[in-house]
Amino acid sequence: MPFPVFFKDTYFEINNMIITQWIVIVGLLVMAFFINRAVINGRFTKLRGTLELLTDFLEGWFASFIGGRKYARKYMPLLGSLFIFILISNYLGIVPGAGYGFFAPTGRWGTTLGLAVFVAISVQVITISMLGTWGWIKHLLHLGPLSILEEFVRPFSLSLRLFGTIFGEETLLAVIVFLAPMFAPLPIMGLSLMFGAIQAVVFTTLTAIYIGGVLEHALHHSHGHGHEHDDAHEHKPAHAH
After folding, report:
1. Which of helix, strand or coil describes residue 236?
2. pLDDT tens-digit profile of 139-186?
3. How far is CA 113 from CA 49, 110, 157, 160, 185, in A?
4. Stretch 10-16: mean pLDDT
5. Is 75 helix (H, G, I), strand (E, B) or coil?
6. Distances (CA, A) of 68 to 64, 82, 93, 200
7. Residues 6+ apart with CB under 8 A from 8
8. Separation CA 12–CA 210 (nearest Å)
9. Burial track 87-106 (b if 16+ CB lie within 10 A, e otherwise)
10. Nearest-CA neighbor of 90 among 172, 198, 185?
């Protein structure tokens, strides 16, 4: 049965997609609470172990794009939360009842656009924390109009990529279920599991690359102030590895 729709046909409409997002968020908060309790009490559980392995893997993966494990660990709360939310949201599109009781939140552009806005704001906040307000303004002025536009447009390209992939998978799966409801959907569901994980990795990896670019600029900026009389050729920014 579909979830009830509240305030229908108004700006404040609460539909299946929004309720599904709330369920995902509440589920993640409950999971975080129990894992935190397990860590505080020194109790090992399978869920804790699985998430620790996942966190270690993601930290190592992001480290190559953001400038090392030090920075990957610093920004793991942001990157890890994005990854888990997107992964679970993607997988909701293939559970029984998808399209009726549940929607994949990432299969709606409103969700992915919200994630893009969050990433864009987060990157600017990180830039301000690294460079200061005046340094951030000088950074934007140094970029030029087109680069400033690109700075804010890049996250929105992420939203379109994620939305298009998940919406396409949902549509294809719905058509196949309608035409051959018994076994034909199984291969598509398997591919959806793989692509759902890939899209979560792609979104968070590109976010890490954006943050890595900010860190690279900040380190180059501080290095330049420490060596004002050095040769200009020695001020090349290091690549984020």
Report:
1. coil
2. 777 766 766 677 667 777 777 777 777 777 666 666 666 666 666 566
3. 32, 5, 9, 8, 29
4. 72
5. coil
6. 6, 19, 34, 21
7. 15
8. 33
9. bbbbbbbbeeebbeebbbbb
10. 198
